[in-house]
């Protein structure tokens, strides 16, 4: 039996990149997956890939910063799949710039998606997760996993809005764990370091070397490195772990 067999997961920002990798990994471990992104059409590639492997998935269009849309999305997922066991708050954006020049709009946009969006989905799934019980009536609860960032711990010049949002996600994670723990709902965060992407692929060699010099493992992370950590936190193998920030950064910081 796969370790997530019979579970239902919601993954935001799941149309591409880290979110898509997480959705596919959870499906491979047996979960039915609600693939969420800003536009439902963007989700189809991830949904089709999961379905082709024999797992269950459905796409949902949702603006994570819109309370009404988030609540409606969670209700739709429960109507379609019956429950929610796993919530992965991965949706995020960047609008980088020095804080002296950063506009109100760029600050608000990043905080609204990265931090408020995490709060809204966490709030929306908390009550349904409280109702999750096994056949014998034992409280099952659920697992909430937030995608933070190494820069939410250490800061980063030119990313005042992004680092503030991810630092907020880290604090929200710890508070959520304390508030929901008595209902057997765990909440943890993953803090990725430098993850290989189209952006890192086109970096000049001297810039790549400068980044690599800060990483003891001497490589960028992959989307699968993050997905593997999420799958573990989602499973009962991590049943006694909550309120933790798991740094997946190749040793950049402790």
Write up what this structure looks like:
This protein has 254 residues and is an alpha/beta fold. The protein is 44% helix and 15% strand. The protein has a seven-stranded parallel beta sheet with strand order 3-2-1-4-5-6-7, sandwiched between helices. Helix 1 crosses helix 9, helix 3 runs parallel beside helix 4 and helix 4 packs parallel to helix 6. The radius of gyration is 18 Å and the shape is globular.
Task: Provide a quick synopsis of the model.
The protein is α/β, with parallel strands linked by helices. It has helices at residues 17-28, 44-52, 67-81, 104-130, 151-154, 160-180, 198-201, 205-212, 223-234; strands at 8-12, 32-37, 57-61, 86-89, 142-147, 185-192, 245-248. The protein is built from 9 helices and 7 strands, in the order βαβαβαβαβααβαααβ.
Instruction: Briefly note the structural class of the backbone.
Output: alpha/beta
Note the main sheet. 7 strands, parallel
The radius of gyration computed from the alpha-carbon positions, rounded to a whole number of angstroms, is 18 Å
- How do the strands of the widest beta sheet line up side by side? 3-2-1-4-5-6-7
Share in helix: 40-55%
SSE order: EHEHEHEHEHHEHHHE
Descriptive keywords:
single chain, alpha/beta, 254 residues
Helix-strand blueprint:
Layout: E1 8-12, H1 17-28, E2 32-37, H2 44-52, E3 57-61, H3 67-81, E4 86-89, H4 104-130, E5 142-147, H5 151-154, H6 160-180, E6 185-192, H7 198-201, H8 205-212, H9 223-234, E7 245-248
Parallel strand pairs: 1-2, 1-4, 2-3, 4-5, 5-6, 6-7
Helix pairs in contact: 1-9, 3-4, 4-6
